[in-house]
């Protein structure tokens, strides 16, 4: 059972919590954290969702997940990276990119570049069934295909990635 804080339409905690998967009232939101992981070779980590997942089984995505009750989004991002792909990320190198709102969820997007390889990663089998390192162009192509990401999310992430040297 996973409990999450409920946020209002301005992105503030309401003081209420709900179980993950609960239908929220209009103007209520959960918070998710996303991590764009780039290694020092300029390759980005993507993960294939487990075939047993209820939503988007088998689809390729970036590291992301719900922010637990009492966590701030940065803590959620660090925890998700550790749980899903086995990487302990340095907090001080995490760069907040933007917040996007889609349906009943806010998505806080972070970026980090650190040295790592696929051999450094450990998959959480209940969440992830494969990992891959891709080029910036491959990540942008994947992003364009993601129907579960808003146009604003895609535009802002594309702008950020396109301006990276």
Automatic annotation (TrEMBL):
Molecular function, one GO term: hydrolase activity
Pfam family, one: NUDIX
Chain ranges of the Nudix hydrolase domain: 28-158
UniProt KW Cytoplasm keyword: no
Keyword set, alphabetical order: Hydrolase
Record-linked PROSITE patterns: NUDIX, NUDIX_BOX
Cross-referenced PANTHER family: ISOPENTENYL-DIPHOSPHATE DELTA-ISOMERASE
Protein name per the record: Hydrolase, NUDIX family
Species name: Ruminococcus callidus ATCC 27760
